[in-house]
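Chain A, query sequence.
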Amino acid sequence: MFFLQQQHPALFAAFDVYPSAKGSATHIYHNAEALFAYAGGGWLAVLGDERLADYQREFNPQSVEITRFSQPIDNYLRRGQAYSDALLQTLAEQKGLRLAHFRDIWGGLPILLHKSRSQAPYKTVFEVNGLPSIELPYRYPQLPQSTLAKLGQMEQYCLQQADAVIVPSEVIRQNLLRMGLSAQKVSVISNGAEVPEDFQRLAAMPERYAIYFGALQPWQGVDTLLKAFQYLEDIPDIKLVICASSKAKQTRPYQKLVRRLGLTERIIWQYRLKKRPLYNWVHFAEFSVAPLKDCSRNLAQGCCPLKVLESMAVGTPVIASDMPAVREIIPSASLGQLVRADRPAVLARAMRLWFDQPPHTRQMGAATRQHIQKHYTWEQKKAELQALYRQLLA
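Chain A, predicted structure.
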């Protein structure tokens, strides 16, 4: 059970560590801010780690209580169930709830079960960025089919019982429609990006480099990028910067691959950077790379990669894998280059061309920044989300 000091009009639940260097934390920050600004305060129920307090109170300007589940449970499924149990127990004491927004089944199940059992009048929003039945086999290949089937049933329950479902891309929306969800129930509200100013070149930055930043899950395609960079060994003055959202020890498999490919002197690693230093690194790169894998996680499920949006927002053009979710963000060749996924040689050719034509990429970078300002700022996305809340509570 979580400790709360007051009753809240809104709950935002996410089975994710918050704050963190991951893209999911950025999304949580902006969507929770939109919810609490709309409702006049609220409760944020997230995960914690050894750096974060289990309880936090904020006034900005709304009153917000943050509870963090930090029990040291290594098993992912058991930890998810324990988080759900704590949320369900605490919900019994929250009598004034009007809106509950959740990002996953571990927050959704207790929210929906409590609403059903207590006949509470609050409205529910399921934000679907990914589905465990599709994503978890990449992290835990030994999961039995019976477990995946049970997860699928839990997903279906949350999808069917939620009052509204939001997704960050049309690809995910179409996947949910194929799963039987009503078209009227699902809205697309894409990820957004900040458009920062006043960048600072840091002493550690090489003169010329390409950059990858974000998480290192298998579907991100970092191995493809490293193999592609090996093809560029005849261009001696370039580096590849990898800004990982994880700790250094979690990059060991990629460090091993770097050594095997003979790239040790050409790769610069950065770990868990805060936003401002990260934006500096991205801004001064010749270009950013998003080498997403051709897999069910990115195709059948869909995605809306923050790294693409954030690169464009700081004026850095992107070479990315050609897949439907990325085409939603980069609809023309004037805004970036899309290449066939999982083809290191093809990716290397695109990178070589862009290293050879930096004025062209700088001009494209200005266009990408304008594109984000017009279509993808977080303020625009928060306004879309609040419009959905108003519709639900009308």
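The two ends are 32 Å apart (CA to CA). The first helix runs from residue 23 to 39.
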